[in-house]
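A further point concerns the way the authors explain their paired sequence and structure data. Since the whole study asks how a given chain folds, the encoding of that fold should be made plain. A single example would do more here than another paragraph of explanation. An entry of this sort, consisting of the sequence and the corresponding backbone structure tokens, reads as follows:

_____
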Amino acid sequence: MPEVQKEINSMRHDAETIFNSALSAVNAFNAVKKHCRLENSTLYIDQSSFDLTYYKHIYIVGAGKASAQMGAAVEEILSPRITGGIINVKYGHTAALKTIKLVEAGHPIPDENGRNGAMAILHLAEQAAKDDLIICLISGGGSALLPLPAPPLTLADKQKTIRTLLSCGAGINEINILRKHMSLIKGGHLAEKAYPATLITLILSDVVGNPLDIIASGLTTADPSTFDDCMDILNRYDIKHQIPVSVVEHIQNGIDKKLPDTPKPGSRTFDKTINVIVGSNMEALSAGKKMAESLGYHTLIFSSLIEGDTREAAHTHAAIAKEIRLTGNPVSPPACILSGGETTVFIKGKGKGGRNQEFALTAAFDIMNEDRMVILSGGTDGTDGPTDAAGAVIDSGTIKKARDLQLNPYLFLENNDSYHFFKSTGDLLITGPTGTNVMDLRIVLVK
């Protein structure tokens, strides 16, 4: 094997090592244990303390791809004090729990299992009294996993609306604003039903900037958005004609004050509620930086706030890699650039893929005439779009390798079919469920 290829293979291994190190730092089980501890009968969560002798019952609820692991940590801390609980998780993202019931459900498109689990969670919250404690566990995917449409909306109405929003390029903030105003449980409604019980929410953030009202569509936080904001989003993307008439009418009824809006800041609903971020994208990036430096790379965290068009983000990252090669800026080789966040794919084709695979395929074109460059883009939950891959790892020889296999990479990209492209080239990043979810990580290596 030529020396250059050996070095590229070594860099690919380094990229995966950095990625795995970042994942370990935000493991959901460890994140909960890091922020919560029990001493005698007092539960400490960061700077807050709770005398458990006061509470008659302790209930655990929640949703998300990593919430089962969060539940396992809470059980280890509080068992046998837990009265019961229900958590909705994505199919296959489970853990061995003793007291808490797991409901496996659909993501990103909600399904009937999710609706039934959400209804059971809301019922449990409603039965809690003022001397009860509810611990809510939230991680990425919580919005899709807790579908409970406000009548007369149906699950089918919500499914079609979410598909349309995902396809038109709407960002997660915009999608979750719509979700909150179509739901009986999101947008602070879970906290509303739980009041006057004490409500503690532990959050593994999967949203850029960690806005509490957007993560899992703000189940337990005040909602500053309105029905007017929902209509603005529909108009912005010109999709009113693509979503169910019932949804448009529901939003218009809210604008006309025929329906109450979501609970707002200042409501007594949140007097006995606290929300704690136990894991974030920046924590993962910081751990990745530490590992990259230990491997000998001059390392820079570019940003944890990368949003917008996936292909534009890929062009920017590839341009930074070329700048490093050309001028040694912003860091000199051997260099590692790390970034996080969550970009958006504008779907035009009928292929299969996800934003990380689309990012990697776009970047592969940009660096195909370079030398000794490797780029990894992966979802920290282990899934990228409707695929079994977390993302992909590419290098400066990826496009040549594809052409040697008689593949036309342009056709794959235009058809949004990055999954089948990388399956053919052997460049898929396969991790399985990771036990965490703090958006995406991108790793750019240059030697």
The first strand starts at residue 36 and ends at 39.
